[in-house]
Amino acid sequence: MAKTANRAYSRYTREAVELLAVMIREARIERKLPAKELAERAGISRGLLQRIEKGDPNCSLGAVFEVAYLLGIRLFDSDERALASTLVMSKEKLSLLPKMARKPARGVDDDF
Amino acid sequence: MAKTANRAYSRYTREAVELLAVMIREARIERKLPAKELAERAGISRGLLQRIEKGDPNCSLGAVFEVAYLLGIRLFDSDERALASTLVMSKEKLSLLPKMARKPARGVDDDF
DNA sequence: TTTAAGTGCTCTATTTATAGATCATAATTT
DNA sequence: AAATTATGATCTATAAATAGAGCACTTAAA
User: Which of A26, A38, B69, B95 has the fewest CB atoms in 10 Å of its CB?
Assistant: First the structure.
């Protein structure tokens, strides 16, 4: 009852994942950092780093983000302070929204 | 011999993952899209979507990116055409770099 | 206020990701 | 050209992720 199997990703997703992979490999090579060493710093195996740099979408988000971070790649705010406050603001905004997503019966505002 | 275990993420990574999670939940609620429906569209289970919106770093990169994409969240270029060309350029740049990361013997250019 | 839908949790079976080791090959340095 | 390091690939055991279902509770619509 698991059948995770072959997922169908959108083209955007596929390219975004691959771009991130290429950016990572680029940054690593530019910094002359051997895969083995980067993997150790990130707390992952060399094999996993290899998959990440290959653009495997089945790698864990945390591992990929951590590797990117160690190489100086910032997906959101470039400094931690800014990211922290952005996060706080987003949480506040979220708290103001309704807690459930319910479609108003039928008729209007539906995304066909 | 797997012992994947508890990884230690940097603060930046933790916050980046959580921010993405909040952005996703925000976008979903704003669009009045029930979790069940979004999960179906993304080809994942409702349980996984729940973990994604909770900021679990152990979710697969592809699943998270796909959900974000479906909600209109673009981590890189906003339109697919731009992303595609960015990807091509990045690949070209990568092809010009040395293929291995080797540290020049000893002495200079080391990132301590 | 009633009612139905959405959500959050938990549990289990199963698939899949990951670590770790090894080996052959390729790419740099010297 | 020789030496050495980095990489890519493969294999195995194990841990972890995921699907799917069920259930109580909450929320918002009517």
Answer: B95
